[in-house]
């Protein structure tokens, strides 16, 4: 790279210029080489520059006995630098990939600690970027995955920044030796069973022996791919603008898209637009799983197809696709009494209902459609509820959880549906607030 260890502080400060007015700088501090150098650099920069409040966060996964000593080591380093340390224990969920499960637990903890106006800093460097690119290449990743690690992205209520992505591990080691820093060597980093370790110890040394600039070249390729992904994101936004149309059921509070503008696009543009829309909602499907989208679009017009994804479901109904997650995937209780209609009634797995206007005389209960219900309408007599829902094009997934107001066996009202939700403009109306949850946003 042709730059010396003495350049590191100025290079780091340059990468942090845009964040000098952040509320706080929080550093992910494992105690390893990368985060030790990053924390040391920041602590010493803070002595000579006006910087935001600096603190460190150590995540204790509890996956190996050696890790029990690491919080004490991290505390001693932070005490010497005058940096406050927060140690947080996390539970790693068992699964096929321990690497991935530990990472997800770690970043969930980071997100929970990152407040509005905070900058969260991690120590990944250029060698890590090359590993990430190779790792994702071996998994058959697309443009988004091969973009590798972005220099910054949203995290919690703040922003995650990786300010050392243009620095090599060799430079970090040289800095650590020059300043006589002590760091933890995680024994698991030598375990070649882990894919990243295999790449680090077996593959990358062979590549750099043949092509000394291999890691710099891979980092440059990742940057090109990030630019390409940016163009694909712009195209997705243009395509989605045609599909993000108003719905008469916007009160459901669910993300939805009009289907026709999407199906008019080429298959590749459909996947690109939908991936962009789904990305904040769920882990994206792999290539093989995209057949679920084709099945959803190709199902018969009178069908209600569902595409199940990692963190929720995509439903097709009423000419739109709808994203359902959380409480929407849990069945509501069959029936519940409403002893005091003057106060809102909370429904299990289904939000709450309330009245406006004079409440009807009881005893009242809230139930759900079982089939065969009839409702008396002024001037129309008794009408089948299924037909009434069809007339209003109520999405199929809503029908089984629309709160129905009964007095005895008499169906008095269907929440939120004009003409069915109460007794005239001067009477009462039944209102349903479907959920109190944030709809699936990760």
Automatic annotation (TrEMBL):
It is an enzyme of class 6 (ligase). GO terms for biological process: tRNA modification. Residues 364-432 form the Lysidine-tRNA(Ile) synthetase C-terminal domain. Gene3D superfamilies: 1.20.59.20, HUPs. Its EC number is 6.3.4.19. Pfam families: ATP_bind_3, TilS, TilS_C. It catalyses: cytidine(34) in tRNA(Ile2) + L-lysine + ATP = lysidine(34) in tRNA(Ile2) + AMP + diphosphate + H(+). Keywords: ATP-binding, Cytoplasm, Ligase, Nucleotide-binding, tRNA processing. This is tRNA(Ile)-lysidine synthase. The N-terminal region contains the highly conserved SGGXDS motif, predicted to be a P-loop motif involved in ATP binding. Belongs to the tRNA(Ile)-lysidine synthase family. GO terms for molecular function: ATP binding; tRNA(Ile)-lysidine synthase activity. ATP binds at residues 30-35. Ligates lysine onto the cytidine present at position 34 of the AUA codon-specific tRNA(Ile) that contains the anticodon CAU, in an ATP-dependent manner. Cytidine is converted to lysidine, thus changing the amino acid specificity of the tRNA from methionine to isoleucine. GO terms for cellular component: cytoplasm. The keyword Chaperone does not apply. It is found in: Cytoplasm. It comes from Pseudomonas jessenii.
């Amino acid at each position: 790279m042709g730059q010396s260890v003495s350049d590191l502080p100025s290079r780091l400060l340059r990468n942090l210029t845009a964040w000098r007015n952040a509320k706080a700088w929080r550093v992910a501090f494992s105690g390893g080489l990368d985060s030790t150098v990053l924390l040391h650099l920041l602590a010493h920069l803070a002595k000579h520059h006006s910087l935001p409040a600096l603190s460190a966060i150590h995540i204790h996964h509890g996956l190996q006995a050696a890790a029990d000593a690491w919080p004490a080591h991290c505390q001693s380093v932070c005490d010497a630098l005058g940096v406050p340390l927060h140690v947080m224990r996390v539970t790693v969920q068992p699964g096929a990939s321990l690497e991935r499960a530990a990472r997800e637990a770690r970043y969930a903890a980071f997100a929970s600690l990152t407040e509005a106006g905070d900058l969260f800093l991690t120590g990944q460097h250029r060698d890590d970027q090359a590993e990430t690119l190779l790792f994702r290449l071996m998994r058959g990743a697309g443009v988004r995955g091969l973009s590798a690690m972005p220099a910054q992205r949203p995290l919690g209520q703040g922003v995650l920044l990786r300010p050392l992505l243009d620095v090599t591990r060799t430079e970090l080691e040289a800095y650590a030796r020059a300043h006589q820093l002590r760091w933890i060597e995680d024994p698991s980093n030598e375990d070649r069973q882990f894919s990243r370790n295999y790449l680090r110890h077996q593959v990358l040394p062979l590549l750099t022996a043949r092509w000394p600039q291999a890691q710099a070249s891979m980092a440059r390729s990742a940057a090109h791919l990030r630019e390409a992904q940016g163009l694909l994101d712009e195209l997705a936004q243009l395509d989605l603008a045609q599909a993000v149309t108003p719905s008469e059921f916007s009160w459901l509070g669910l993300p939805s898209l009009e289907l026709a503008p999407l199906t008019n696009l080429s298959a590749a543009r459909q996947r690109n637009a939908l991936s962009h829309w789904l990305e904040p909602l769920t882990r994206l499907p792999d290539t093989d799983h995209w057949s679920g989208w084709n099945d959803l679009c190709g199902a018969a017009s009178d069908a209600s197809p569902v595409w199940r994804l990692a963190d929720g479901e995509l439903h097709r109904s009423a000419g739109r696709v709808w994203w359902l997650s959380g409480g929407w995937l849990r069945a509501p209780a069959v029936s519940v009494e409403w002893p005091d209609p003057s106060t809102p009634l909370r429904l299990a797995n289904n939000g709450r209902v309330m009245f406006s206007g004079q409440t009807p005389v009881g005893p009242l209960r809230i139930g759900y459609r079982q089939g065969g219900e009839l409702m008396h309408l002024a001037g129309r007599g008794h009408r089948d509820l299924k037909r009434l829902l069809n007339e209003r094009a109520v999405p199929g997934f809503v029908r089984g959880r629309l709160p129905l107001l009964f007095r005895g066996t008499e169906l008095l009202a269907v929440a939120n549906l004009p003409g069915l939700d109460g007794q005239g403009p001067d009477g009462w109306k039944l209102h349903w607030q479907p959920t109190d949850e944030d709809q699936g946003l990760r």
